[in-house]
From TrEMBL, chains A, B, C, D, E, F, G, H:
Taxonomic classification: Bacteria, Bacillati, Actinomycetota, Actinomycetes, Pseudonocardiales
One Pfam match: Glyoxalase
VOC domain segment(s): 6-125
InterPro entries with a match to the protein in the record: Glyas_Bleomycin-R_OHBP_Dase, Glyas_Fos-R_dOase_dom, VOC_core
Gene3D superfamilies assigned: 2,3-Dihydroxybiphenyl 1,2-Dioxygenase, domain 1
Name of the featured protein: VOC domain-containing protein
Superkingdom, natural source: Bacteria
PROSITE patterns named in the record: VOC (PS51819)
Length: 132, 132, 132, 132, 132, 132, 132, 132
């Protein structure tokens, strides 16, 4: 388990900060924490996501090797994310699908793409102990 | 605050998985969770880091726009990280330094680079409420 | 998530402190913490509610723009509140009803009115992450 | 103590939603959660604050009987709030001051006013058990 | 809610300390913490129970006005206690029964008696918020 | 450690319920939860205290064998209780004193008496692990 | 309950450290924390397991008197362990079986053996309070 | 971090169960949970220790490769253990000493021996993150 007070910190490029706010806050339900000329910071599922204004964004969204997201311990939280994606018509890159099926580390997964082609993956392991 | 059961998930490229294990486990003190032919997974400060075997790694370590790490709520935890870096002679990219000095969001920061030039940043805000 | 030790603080007018105690403690099940000549303080679902003796109370209870209450993370806690309202025949201003139906932020809501026409709203979001 | 999953819910009027975002997010460090034509919602120190667009705002900021805020259990958290107020030059209505001095319920307090003259009070009791 | 680190402290008379150990540890499943010539201390459901050697014990077990026990938040924990009482044939003074039936504070209750006629009550409220 | 959701339950006699409210709420800082003709219930430091109207009260307050109270894990919480006792001039039966001095179970203690001669003891062990 | 920050520490012999890593990490899903010439340390279900390189290992795996493991509070966590054992074909020494059947301390149990014949037992009590 | 509800489980031999109770409860301050003809179970710092009656005990206490104990996250908890050892004159096998001095995994350690020559080690790492 992790503690409640530290925050994981993730920084990714964004070609347009308004787009980033639109996607992360009004799409994914993250919360806008701070905004500067060159970056915007979010409370992303309890962790800190920073979108840095940059032209260095991928031409298309590619699953590997770079992505980030959340591994939910509870199946219902993954279900809620799926409903949010559907309600808000977020751009799905892959899934929902079952991975490592029939093994101890079996988990559900869905991958989204933000407007700058950063990939966000949400997962739910049958056995949360194996989510690492 | 975030909850204790979910895990933040971060995936980055690694040109060599043994090197990744050496750096993250025996260097940074992350814990090796699983290893496959094409990836290795770590318990990285309570969250899930996955290094995917890939040639798509940066030629040099560059701070922006992509990096990840931990924002420590307690000053002592940042100090402990600094001591670890020193004891184990980890490769420092920048800092330790004070950022946003004299503002409410003032924080200490240090950036490291892993063997595949992924950048890892550790931070400690004077006011942990502003770490988002 | 919020932490367990701080308390949210809400102050509202009450035209009669005995009435306020009757409503909040023996009605809503809040707990009486302190009482002074000009105010009474309650442990209101874990937060601090203060009723200040004042003639400046609304002539009738109006839902918007001022109200306060609790957003329950668990559906059962909202159900329990509904049963309490029914058992103790508390004055219902609106609901129970479903709001933002068919969206990610769908939630159940009920609004009560205290004897000084302060409005208290209780809610339960399908996705507690969106309760902010 | 309160639990970590429920949220206290506070709704107040705002004559201008942009002003509200400016004050609460870029001033007080609350986080923007959602925005609609007629309201904006914030993660305010872990609880839900909603500003409803309304002309029904006070002509001037008056301390009693209506206000809301946070009672910090830790003295350092109150100190951090004071530093934030100073760094960001937020509009102070009263204090910082010591109230109920020399009694068991002695506490420090500071009151701010938002652009719509809603009053926000922050407190720190010497004995957090008496913060109710 | 209460915190996890403090302990509630209850002291009662016992005419025989061996009997007390037999009842509380091998009967109720409390844990023996310390023993002196004139007292024995238990970890009683997470709180501290002390049995003081004394002749001042009631001639018979009487429910009111003095007793102590546990109010379980979860129905299953009350069920488990009932099974323990049955399996270990503990001496039941009253119940299990439903009290305040049809009100918001409805709860299940069972009362046991220890060898020195101290009364122990276990309860489970439909609405744990009303267990105070 | 104990969990946060269950409550320890203590029932004692009170010859006068108003006196009990005066002492426990306005004296000790407990919170009034419910009141009936024959009893009053308190949130007493997070646990449930019930005062049952009864003539069966001790003629004088005697420390042993019956009392109840709180064992604080943190020294500051015990200090705060001492200050409350002083500020509010509560009736002290014994102490503050050091007990089991020079042993592993050394602790500070103070005993108060309520208007019905029930004895309340507050303690603070040097080693909170030994508070059982 | 135990606290979240301390770790239980268990040290056992291993005739081969690679084998130990293979079994504990890639079998049981423990996490590799550190490795030295003469020992390897694991995060074993949140506690610290150290395998010391040693020839002093049992010739065969024997259940009593020496073993270690985890007592799961939740039935689902025990079920997950059973599935892991099956999926990964871990060496089962005994069980799964029901012990102390028909008593308050009834629990499910399964015992595994590591490559150095250390015995690991996993349990799940019907009443987690009795897991001590 | 580990969770609060599961328990680590450790089983060791004891040549005499009364001796084991004397050492673990009245010496180390563990709590006696249950006792059978052939075993006694303890709440050992929040985890479950079982002493099985057995003649298979070491002739002398030897530090490696088998021992168990606690790694304290807080320095004060280690200090408290040292004071307990001194006050109660427990049998010290080695230390207190500093191990891995001048490295990131530096920690204090002390080893005790129980009456059956089982070795118990207590530790405190400068950086609790490295206690695994």
């Amino acid at each position: 388990m992790r503690n409640t007070h530290d925050a994981c910190h993730i920084a990714v490029p964004a070609k347009d900060l308004d787009e980033a706010v639109e996607f992360y806050v009004f799409g994914l339900g993250a919360k806008l924490a701070r905004r500067y000329d060159d970056r915007v910071t979010f409370d992303f599922f309890g962790d800190q996501l920073v979108c840095h204004l940059s032209d260095d964004v991928p031409e298309e969204a590619v699953m590997y090797p770079r992505h980030f997201g959340v591994s939910f311990a509870a199946a219902e939280d993954f279900d809620r994310l799926l409903r949010l994606v559907e309600h808000r018509k977020l751009r799905v890159l892959a899934g929902p699908a079952l991975r490592f099926e029939g093994t101890a580390e079996q988990h559900r997964t869905i991958a989204l793409a933000d407007p700058s082609n950063n990939v966000i993956e949400f997962k739910n392991y049958d056995d949360p102990r194996l989510q690492f």
